[in-house]
Specification:
By secondary structure, the chain is of the alpha+beta class. It has helices at about 25-30, 55-65, 70-75, 80-90; strands spanning about 1-10, 15-20, 45-50. It has one domain (about 1-90): GIY-YIG endonuclease, CATH 3.40.1440. The chain is about 45% helix and about 25% strand.
Length: about 90
């Protein structure tokens, strides 16, 4: 299995989109500062993921989610999460 995932920075609410074959390990790597692009915004929390059987499908989906249309899809998909996050500041 390959996983597309969305992380949110606890520090400043930035989002990061990626894909991996080992979701737990990859989240741990992000939070240990092993990724240059995410290190300045640690710590991270996983807010969304989806699974693909094929790596090429996961790569294609990652690229889509990073584009404007994919960003809109994620905002609709996670509408309640973002609304609750904004209102309560618990996340």
């Amino acid at each position: 299995m390959f996983y597309n995932y969305v992380l949110q920075s606890v520090k400043n609410d930035n989002l990061y989109i990626g894909y991996t074959s080992n979701l737990k390990k990859r989240l741990k790597e992000h939070n240990q500062g092993l990724s240059k692009s995410t290190k300045p915004y640690m710590p991270w929390k996983l807010i969304y993921y989806e699974a693909c059987l094929n790596e090429k499908d996961a790569k294609r989906r990652e690229q889509y989610l990073k584009k404007t249309q994919g960003q809109r899809l994620l905002k609709r998909r996670l509408k309640e999460y973002f609304y609750y996050n904004k209102r309560s500041n618990k996340f």
